Structure formats: structure tokens, C-alpha cells
Amino acid sequence: MASTYSHEWRAVCDKFNNAQDLSEVESRKDPENDPFRSKYKARELLREIYCSLKNFDVGENESVNDEADQRPTEQPVDGGMEEGFGRGHCGDSPAGSRAAKLGAVEYYLGVNHVETEELSAGEEHLMNCMTLLEKCSISPENVSLFIQVRNQLGILWAGRDEIEKAQGFLETAEAMYIRYMKEDGQPPMDLTEFFVAEEEALPQQERTKRFEMAYTHTLYYLAQVYKNLEQYEKAGGYCHSTLQRQLKFNQFIPLEWAINAATLSQYYITKNLYMEGRHCLSAASVIADLAGEVPSEAAAQESEAEAEKRDQLRQKRAEIARCWIKYCLNLLQDAKKLLEDNIGELDMDRQAELRATRLQEEEEKERGRKSAVLFGSTDTFDSICGLEEKVSCVFPVDFEEARAIFLVGQTYVNQAKEYFEMDGHVTDHIEILQDHSALFKALAFFEEDMERRCKMHKRRVDMMEPICKDLNAQYYLLVCRQLQFELAETYYEMMDLKLAVANKQDDLDAHTVKKFNHLCSSSTRFYQMFLDSVRSPEGKWPEKLEDEVLRPALVAKFRVARLHSRLISSSKTVQLENLNRSLECYNFVVQYCKDNPEAKSAIETELELSEEMVSLLPLKINRLQANLASSNGL
Amino acid sequence: MVEDMKGKIRVFCRIRPMSRAEAAQGGAIAVGRLDDYSVTVETSRGPREFQFDRVFSGESSQEDVFQDTNRLIQSAIDGFNVCIFAYGQTGSGKTFTMVGDRDQRSPGIMPRAFNAVFDILQENATKFDFKVSVYMLELYNDRLQDLFVSGAEAQSRRVEIKRNRKGLVFAQGAETKEASSAGELFAMFQQACANRHNAATKMNVESSRSHLIIGIMVETRNLTNGSVSFGKLSLVDLAGSERAAKTGAKDDQLKEANSINKSLSALGDVISALSSDLPHIPYRNSKLTQIMQDSLGGNAKTLMVVNVSPSECNLDETLTSLIYATRVKTITNIAQRNLESKEIAQLKEVIMKLRSGQPVEDDEV
């Protein structure tokens, strides 16, 4: 650059700095009734800069008939990359440099218009920038601009609901980054450096950081684009990459990053990608710890700010614990689905099968997937690995393995409950308890010993029954119904187990019968409670059941029917009473479906069986009655 | 089975009549009511249909809309936890729906609810003793503020809404006032709105907009047997803030991060949206989501009224509102289990035996 205009050049640089300052700093102070005041001023300065630049170098330039002069026709589809690495001016030549500078001003003008809600003008400037760059080969001077202008155009077109166009720009930017890093890789100049003196150039490290941040934005926008295109898997991958890069380049807020990673883990769980899920959760836990110490209760009393910080930290960490609970629970439940036979018991053949597949998968995993998903810088990596080692990411096949996962889940339950205490966080607290109960239920599946299994179910009952009694049933209607139903089912399960144990030992003594009947009645009691909750405040059963209670209510009636008939009694009178009650319930189901035929599809199997029982039970009842009559000497 | 019993939120959609300004701009209509339950929207990619529990067109009256909500008021007095949310962008008719016109010649849901509460209580005055108390809060910038207190003092106090197992709700840090008539309630409401306006003008452009939260607690004591029940009616007026949705930003617009230092704040929203059934969503970025969650949890009686404009020039905002409203309705699953439960298998065996005349042990049936 000739020094003849170094004076003018200085002026341009100063002007640029002013424009930046107006745009970023002053604009925040603009009043509400004139919110773009500073940005308009900045715009004027940028325009002046543009003119000045155009006037420099006239004569020195080879291609004076500036393509840049002509307002280019709209090129909505970006074909810019292929030309980028070869044709036109070399990026470092004076012509290339000039084009880049003009392009940068066009870029800032474009962004300025977008920020002041003038999208068409913004688009025009951004497209100009792109066109200017097309004349040059890609160099460290212009690659950042190349990428960032496409980021902006991506946002712009997405805002106009033209997702595919946005996708085009962003994917080009992505490809350019990859190619540049492969073929060149030098820390590129940052956009702000176009208008600074050489002494004020950024250090390499800073250049790298900003360039990488620009690319992280590209990935972040692509994640959104793919989500909008409903390509969820791809979107998930890009979210993951964004998170990875945030960590790698140390551009993250710990709690925010941790929560995002924890949320991503939940997505992976829905896809049965437990290895990735575990990695996300471990990273989330480690990074959440980086957010600092929790202020003490005393400190929280003193200062509002400390109180908020304390609450925030505790809450977020408890949320991460809940994500871990879901991880453990889903891992156990998914394993159960693979291992169970058609009546819900562990199938030995399937168990063997799963063991075999697991071995295979272990090897594959070691090779492929793992490296792609790793989070972390050198400091955090070890901590993350450490956490991962504490819990498995493969389906458990036997009790020992299941138990290990259960215990991890239980630890997180206790952690989560510390923050989500009952009073103040009723629904959250109960959700956690329900998860805890579900953990026990899943573990019970793997337990072979029926007595021990029964004890696990007892733990569930002990956990939920007090709450169920304690809660205001009207206020927490939905939750109470869930608890009632779950308790009824659990007692039912325990009843079956008690009987199975006794039958195995061929030992159905009076004590066991009493126990059995007690469990049976308890189950009935809770189904009944649930059914009562469907009644109106005056105690009337609704003529028509609402959608969300239809199936559960009819199933409850069906189960109560069954329960009544299973009560064990040596007295024939009592037996008769029980059978009659049973028949009444089966009848209810049948009658309701007759009166409301649309309900049939909700309860097909149970209806079928109820109809059978309605026709068969009376015979049995009659026989019993006859028996009773004869034994009474009639 | 427990998973089947998901909470169901009823959603009504109300399309307002075209405004003069819209008519002046050409009056192109993009939103129409197909029938009592469906809305159709003409998007740039073709027509799109949305299903709701009720759809009201521009011709519907305030009375029409309130009729369907009246039952909920009764439930609140019966001791249930009832919530009515209104959602919609500014200008969509949300305020008209929730509050009514300025002169109150066409009162909206809130004033009608105030009247309905006291009407019902008066009807039962011989059977019940009652006490009505209310808190009115504003939520903006993620902080709850007491609207019974004005300006600076409101900003300095920390307010939290907490529930305990008995269903007793307390707005910690905020004033709860007693009301003995609908008129009193309405006067309090007007005062609260006045305070709200003051707070709002101090906001700068970047902050999220404000939401109004009214909690009416009704305590009834049965004069015959002395039993006491607590019910609550929450009326929430949600501003059209994109933060209201757990899944965040306007569906088709990317969240920008122009300045290199700005954090990628919407990344969590994107992740949350990857699947509609994440086991747990820790991404509660706002108090609003928290409050809504609390109101929905354990609550079987929630109503959301989403307001939209019929005209083409508001299409983007309308779509955002409708899409959000659709997400808010949780789907009740009637899970078809493919495998038979043990119990069914056992019963089938019993039936088989009975049918074939085989002896069935008395305790096997």
C-alpha cells in the first residue's frame, strides 16, 4: 500500500472504529422511541468508508471496470466455493485485498440493515459482499469473511421461511471451513482487522479463536436448519458438535453448557444411544461443577444475589441428577423389553442372545463411535472418564449388572430430592419418587428369588403410600390418580408373588392365606380409590367417562372384578359374596361398553374376557348356592 | 398404565375479526375456522390444519367463549386446582378475550370469572362459609413481582410461588388480599394493571415481555360438617414471548448470535425440540416454564386460550402461536401393550377350564 494515502487510511480506520463503537456500544443506550439512532449513524460512516475505498487505488488496479460497481443480479443459490480456490485474483494481491475490504464494508452494512429490520437492503449488501469475494481465491485474509457472510445470509433466508436457501449458504460455509483447514490452516484474519494498522493486528491465538467461533456459529445455525427440516438425527449431531467446540475453545458458560449437554443426553436416550447419552451426562456433571461453589444458607440470607445464585446452582445440579435417573431407568427398562417373554418374565434364551450381541457391539463401539463424540479439554477429559466408569452403558443381562445400574440411579434420586423437597416442589418431588419406584420395579424383573422380589415391591409401597394419603387429592388430582393406580398394581404383583412362593413350597397355610387376602384387599382398595376419584363431588359416577380416564377406569373395574374372585375363604357364604361382587364388576364393564360403543376399542381384551366371565360366572355362583343350600340341609 | 394417564390440557383457539388496519392493507385472510374443532392456515407451503378442543371465529361473543370455561370455575370452588392461560401475540385479541374492552361493555374471561366465583359462593351461602383471597403478580425478565405494590418497592422484593402437599399455595414475598365481592376483585385487578403498565415502560427492547399471573384462592367451610376445602383458580395472561415455549424461538426463524461473544442461548431450545418425548427436560430457562409446569403438574383442569389474527400479514405470528398451542396439548396415550400381562393369561386359562367343564378350584377363579 502506497504511503501517500496513509493519512486518509488512518482516517478510514478511525471512522471504522467509530462505526463499530456506535453499533455495539452506543446503540445499547439508545432510547426506546429511537432505538436505532446509533446504528443509523454507524451506517452513514460505513457508507463514507465505502466511497473512500472506491476512490483509493484507482489506476493501480488491473480490473478498473469494477465488477463491484455493477449491482449484481440476485443469485439466491450459492455456487461460490468451487471458484473460491482457484480462479480470479489471488486473495493476497492488491486487487484481492481491495475486494476483501470492500466486501467487509458491504458485510457490515448488510448486518447493519438486518439489525435495523431492513431485510431487503441487508440482503443486497450481503450478496454484494459475496460477489466481491467470488473474484478472489480464498486466502487467510478473506476466508473468515467468506464464512461469516454466508452465516448471515443463512439467518436471513431462514427468517423468510426459505429453509433450503438458508441450508445452501450454511453448507457452503461449512465446506469452505473444512477445505481451508485442510489445505491451508493458517489463523485467518478477523473481520475487524481490515481497518486496523499493522501494529494493532490480533495475535494468532485470538485470530484462531474468533475464526473457530464463526464456524461454531455455522454449525449452530445448521443444527437449527436441520431441526426445522425435521432431520432430527443430523440436527442432534450438529448440536453435539456445537457443544464440543464450545468446550474445546473455552467459549461457554458452565451451567448453561451443562444443562444443554444433559438435555442432549435425553435425546440420545430416546434413540437408545446410551454410550453417547452417558458421555453427555458425565460431561454435564463435570462442567456443572465448574460453575462454582454453592453459597451457604447464611450467605443467601444476607444477599439477594447470593440467594439467587444458591438456588440456581442447586436447582440446575438437581436437574442434571434427574437426567441421570432417567438414564439409569431407561437403560433398565429397555433391557427388560429385550429380555422379557410374552408374560413379562425374564426369558433365558433371550438373555443368552443379548449376552452374545453385547460382545459384538463392544468391539464395534471401541472402534467407531467413541472418538466422534468425545467432549473435553485435557483437564476435564479425565474427570469425565472417571464418571463414565461408574455406570454401564450397555443393557444389563442379569441381576448383578442391573443392580449396579439401580444403585447409581438411587444415588441420583437422593441427590435430586435434596433440592426438590416435597413442600415447595410437590410435583417434582413426586416425579422423582415415581422414578425411584420404577427403578425398583425394573430391578425386580431381574431378581429370581420371589421373596426378594416381593420385598422390592414392598419398598415401592412404603415410599408411595404415605404420600398418597398425605396429598390433597383434589388439588393434585392427576398425581394422586397415578399413585393410586401404581399402588394397586404393586399390591397385585405382591399378592401374586406371595402365592407363587407358597405354591412352590406347597405350603398354603392360614398365615399365608391371611397375608394373601390382605394384599388382595389392599390392591382392591387402591383401585377403588382411583375409581372414586372419577366420581363427581356428590359421589355420582359420570354417565360418560372422559377420554383420559376411560381406559384406566375400565381396567380398574376389571381388575377389581378379578381381585374379588381371588380372595381365599373357607366359608362358602363369603365365597358367594365375593363371586357376586366380582360378577357385578365384570357386568359393569360389559354394560358400559354396550352403552358407549366407542369405548370398546380402548379395552378390547379386557372386554372380551369380561364378556366370557359374565356368561360363565353365574353358573359357578349357582353351583355354589346349591352347594350352600344343601349343606344347610335344605 | 400410569404413563397412560398424562395430563390433558384443553386448548381453545379464538380467531379475532379482521381489524381496520388489516383491511386497509388489502384484507387478505389466511386463517379460517373449518368447524368447531379445526383451524386452517394458508402458509407459503400450502394449507395447514390444526386441531383444538374448541375453535371460535370472529363472530363469537365473549359470552360464547366464557360458557365453556364456566364449569372450570365451579371446579375451582370444589377444591380443584384450575388454570386458565391466554396466549397470543399483541394485537391478536388476547387482552380482549381475557379482560374485555376498556369500558367493560364486553367483559372478558377475568371479570366474568370474578363474577362467577362470587355468584356460586352466594348461591351456596347457606351451606358454606367462604373466604376469597387473591394475589396478582407480574413476571418479566424472569422475575416475579407483586402488582399490589408499585414501582421500586416491587422490584426489590423477591417473590416465589410455592405449593405444599396440601395444595396450599403461597406467594412468598407478595401480598395476598382478601375480597368479599366481585366488585372488590375487579378494583384490585385494575390497580394491579395500573402498576403493571408503570413497570412495563421501564423495560428496554431486549428484555422479554411481561406476563400477568392472578391467583384466586377460595377456602370453603362446610357449615354442616365443618370440613374445609381449598380450591384455586389461576388466571395467566401470557405475553407473546418466544420464551414462553419450552421449545423456544419462532419455529422458522433462526436464533441469531451476531456478536461473537453472545452465548448460543437458543441451543437448548434446539436440543429440546429434537424429540417430542424426552424423558426429562432440564432446560427450564424461564420462571414462566417453571410456573406453568407447576400448574400443570397434578392438575387435571387446565385450559389454554390461544388468540390469533385472521389476516395474512400476521401469518408468521399466527403460525408460531398455533404451533406452540399444539405442542402444549399433551397427548394421552392409550398404550396398546403387545404382550399379554400375566393376569390376562391366567384369566384366559381359567375361562378355558370353565368352558371345557374342567373342575376349577374355588380359589382359582
TrEMBL record, chain A:
<dbReference type="Pfam" id="PF12309">
    <property type="entry name" value="KBP_C"/>
</dbReference>
<feature type="coiled-coil region">
    <location>
        <begin position="296"/>
        <end position="349"/>
    </location>
</feature>
<comment type="function">
    <text>Activator of KIF1B plus-end-directed microtubule motor activity. Required for organization of axonal microtubules, and axonal outgrowth and maintenance during peripheral and central nervous system development.</text>
</comment>
<feature type="region of interest" description="Disordered">
    <location>
        <begin position="61"/>
        <end position="92"/>
    </location>
</feature>
<keyword id="KW-0175">Coiled coil</keyword>
<dbReference type="InterPro" id="IPR011990">
    <property type="entry name" value="TPR-like_helical_dom_sf"/>
</dbReference>
<dbReference type="InterPro" id="IPR022083">
    <property type="entry name" value="KBP"/>
</dbReference>
<dbReference type="GO" id="GO:1990535">
    <property type="term" value="P:neuron projection maintenance"/>
</dbReference>
<dbReference type="GO" id="GO:0005856">
    <property type="term" value="C:cytoskeleton"/>
</dbReference>
<keyword id="KW-0206">Cytoskeleton</keyword>
<dbReference type="GO" id="GO:0000226">
    <property type="term" value="P:microtubule cytoskeleton organization"/>
</dbReference>
<keyword id="KW-0963">Cytoplasm</keyword>
<dbReference type="GO" id="GO:0021952">
    <property type="term" value="P:central nervous system projection neuron axonogenesis"/>
</dbReference>
<protein>
    <recommendedName>
        <fullName>KIF-binding protein</fullName>
    </recommendedName>
</protein>
<comment type="similarity">
    <text>Belongs to the KIF-binding protein family.</text>
</comment>
From TrEMBL, chain B:
<protein>
    <recommendedName>
        <fullName>Kinesin-like protein</fullName>
    </recommendedName>
</protein>
<dbReference type="GO" id="GO:0005874">
    <property type="term" value="C:microtubule"/>
</dbReference>
<keyword id="KW-0547">Nucleotide-binding</keyword>
<keyword id="KW-0067">ATP-binding</keyword>
<keyword id="KW-0206">Cytoskeleton</keyword>
<dbReference type="InterPro" id="IPR001752">
    <property type="entry name" value="Kinesin_motor_dom"/>
</dbReference>
<dbReference type="GO" id="GO:0005524">
    <property type="term" value="F:ATP binding"/>
</dbReference>
<feature type="domain" description="Kinesin motor">
    <location>
        <begin position="8"/>
        <end position="331"/>
    </location>
</feature>
<comment type="similarity">
    <text>Belongs to the TRAFAC class myosin-kinesin ATPase superfamily. Kinesin family.</text>
</comment>
<dbReference type="InterPro" id="IPR027417">
    <property type="entry name" value="P-loop_NTPase"/>
</dbReference>
<keyword id="KW-0963">Cytoplasm</keyword>
<dbReference type="InterPro" id="IPR027640">
    <property type="entry name" value="Kinesin-like_fam"/>
</dbReference>
<dbReference type="GO" id="GO:0008017">
    <property type="term" value="F:microtubule binding"/>
</dbReference>
<dbReference type="GO" id="GO:0007018">
    <property type="term" value="P:microtubule-based movement"/>
</dbReference>
<keyword id="KW-0505">Motor protein</keyword>
<dbReference type="InterPro" id="IPR036961">
    <property type="entry name" value="Kinesin_motor_dom_sf"/>
</dbReference>
<feature type="binding site">
    <location>
        <begin position="88"/>
        <end position="95"/>
    </location>
    <ligand>
        <name>ATP</name>
    </ligand>
</feature>
<dbReference type="Pfam" id="PF00225">
    <property type="entry name" value="Kinesin"/>
</dbReference>
<dbReference type="InterPro" id="IPR019821">
    <property type="entry name" value="Kinesin_motor_CS"/>
</dbReference>
<keyword id="KW-0493">Microtubule</keyword>
<dbReference type="GO" id="GO:0003777">
    <property type="term" value="F:microtubule motor activity"/>
</dbReference>
